[in-house]
Amino acid sequence: MKKIQSLRGMNDLLPADSPTWQYLESTVRSLFTQYGYREVRTPVVEQIDLFKRSIGEVTDIVEKEMYAFETLGGEQVSLRPEGTAGVVRACEQHGLLHNQTQRLWYLGPMFRYEKPQKGRLRQFHQFGVEVFGLEGPDIDGEILLMTARLWRQLGIADRVTLQINSLGTPQSRAAHRAALVEYLQQHRDQLDADSQRRLETNPLRILDSKNPAMESLLEAAPSLQDYMDDESREHFARLCQILDAAGVAYEVNPRLVRGLDYYSRTVFEWVTDSLGAQGTVCGGGRYDGLVEQLGGKPTPAVGFGMGVERLVLMLDALGVVPDSIGQNLDVYLTAVGDVQVAALTLAEQLRSQCPDLRIQCHSGGGSFKSQMKKADKSGAPVALILAEDEVAAGTVTVKYLREERPQDTVAADQLDELLNNYFGKCHPEPRSGVGISQSIESSTRS
């Protein structure tokens, strides 16, 4: 019978790979909480119109990349290709936006049907931040300062570069678009096939082309800055002032437009060359018109998304994940002979008194020699040996697997103190009531 394989571009996360993910996730969660942001979770499947109205019907995502289908009930739905639209829908649906300020974050899988490549999968994961109800450049600055702090905490600050730009208002962008289309039409024969298609649908995206053959043509194209309104200029200048005051380096990239229709004013990307060709690891900006576009009242908003897979690749490539992350075990507890009940009882007692220790209790029987081989293979620095003689005596033998040191034999009730002295992770409880030795003894009689 033919084995079933995972779908192309939808990868498994195996135990050997999970420590980097866990390190990244815990770091990001802690940082967002430190800044006062709260978590929101939205469904993976949404009505397809949500993305058509937010992202834009003539974008590559909607035209080519969405996993769209009809349900058994006849509804037109799609797996979410990005996170912002769903968060806006959820906040509007549950009354979280009108005359309120919200600082939110999310984590979850997104789906786009495109050619899988390094760090870019058909099922990928994103962290995102969305802020509603604040229109000044100070909140734009805050989320950029927050991401800059994240790179420092992860140890990759010297490998990412911040690029920023302003798209102005929809009115100023429309005037620039008209001039840009007129210019590009005059040089249509110099455009590649993708840019010729975009000329009819989303001409601003042509400015973001990475085709070196078009570089000089685009350099001479009409600049959005020449059509910028005064209020947007002041907003962008204040943002730059905030970044300068905080010592966050940046590059102003007038060709940075981002790929979604809903952006206005501030847009930004954190880019790196540590993954080969320059790639974006975090991008976002301001989308003041999106809530109204989806049926709500006018609401200023700003946010960003960051790709988990790309960041994991960076962290692994640069070797910045602490060695302690993903360490297999601290303690391996053997159970030699008919002592499994006593071993499980001891393990539970230790987990209560040493909640930070990673303890595994041997299961499945086997000889002392075979169990010690498994203890050594586990990577734990300490093995606890519990056999019938130890249970009868109320003791445990402690063997040190990673250093030349004589083994110890201690009373079971003193084991947490010994482990605390060795690991510094235990919280020995007062010696009152039923101790470990008594618990083990009673377990052997039951």
Outline the structure in words.
With 446 residues, the chain is α+β, with helices and mostly antiparallel strands. Helix content is 38%, strand content 20%. It contains 16 helices and 16 strands. The protein has helices at residues 18-34, 48-55, 60-65, 84-93, 137-154, 170-186, 193-201, 215-219, 230-246, 290-293, 308-318, 340-353, 368-377, 388-393, 415-423, 436-445, and strands spanning 38-39, 45-47, 68-70, 76-79, 102-111, 123-132, 161-166, 251-252, 264-272, 279-286, 301-307, 331-336, 359-361, 382-387, 395-400, 408-411. The strands form 3 sheets. The protein has an 8-stranded mixed beta sheet with strand order 1-5-6-11-10-9-7-8. Strands 13-12-14-15-16 form a 5-stranded mixed beta sheet, sandwiched between helices. A hairpin with a 6-residue loop joins strand 9 and strand 10. Helix 12 (340-353) packs antiparallel against helix 16. The longest helix has 18 residues, at 137-154. The model is unreliable at 431-435 (pLDDT under 50).
